[in-house]
Amino acid sequence: MKATVRAHPNIALVKYWGKRDDALILPHQSSLSLTLAPIHVTTTVEFGAQADTVELHGHAAKGSERDRVLRLLDAVRVQAGRDLGPAKVVSRGDFPMAAGLASSAAGFAALAVAGRAAAGLPQDTRASSILARRGSGSACRSVQGGFCEWQRGERADGEDSYALQRFDAGHWADLRMVVAILDRGEKEVKSRDGMKNTVETSPYYPAWVKDAEAEVPRARELIARKDLEALGELCERNAWRMHSTSLAADPPLCYLNSSTLGLIQHLREQRKKGVPVWFTLDAGPNPVLLTDAAHEVAAEALARACGAVDVVRCVPGGDATLLSEHLF
Length: 328
What we know:
Shape: globular
Keywords: ATP-binding, Lipid biosynthesis, Lipid metabolism, Lyase, Nucleotide-binding
Family: Belongs to the diphosphomevalonate decarboxylase family.
Order of helices and strands: EEEEEEEEHEHHEEEHHHHEEHEE
EC number: 4.1.1.33
Protein name: diphosphomevalonate decarboxylase
Domain Diphosphomevalonate decarboxylase-like N-terminal: 7-163
Number of strands: 16
Number of helices: 8
């Protein structure tokens, strides 16, 4: 009735941006990401507690944050087909929550795998991915390591919308992702609200869906042959096009700031000098730099020279893993 899991966050190389079903968190298009190590979230779940309690990163969860966790555990109870009693959840991350790396992806991946294990359900990657998606869309891509593709799916119940591992963490071991934290502040518009407004009001959105879906197989091919330059170019144009949909929304939504643009321009200048470094950018101001092991230190130096208040250096990460030691 108790289990602990460690899971890593991921960064989308081809972005997820927009839901066709808000309740089930079903995307309009497929996406592809890289799981990132060594940063992680560790989550312990125990059923049979005296009351439902949720602690996230040292604080008692409240409101919608708490509700999302408990709804996922309700789904576990349904899958178990028996009364498991109240649950106690404790979850802790080891990386800055404002890093631009969705802690919810690692958190809900860990919660899904730990919840199923605590309920006595067998290990099932597909079932865990679908369950994690119900908590946070991108979490379905953190159940496994390496490069994972979240398939859009077609079914209304979402049973065919989950992540598949396309390449494991060892496939491209010298790939590096360097997170440039330019701004630690909270976003004025949360991602879920920004994507909803974009879907509903941006005239560019239908073109984005078609283009992003087509980028997924292109990205798979480039990853297969480890083509850093071509993958970097794909990541940049996909990020620009995602942000363009938001800029064209009503009201317009801009997640970038002057430091973001300054760093992006600096990367272009450095590539002209032979430094292989590109960026991707989720819904926030903090770019994630794509490079190789030989230029990881140079990428960090570039980020700091452009005003990064902190830098997180990442390598390809592995699967969500059950641990023998618990948080309580």
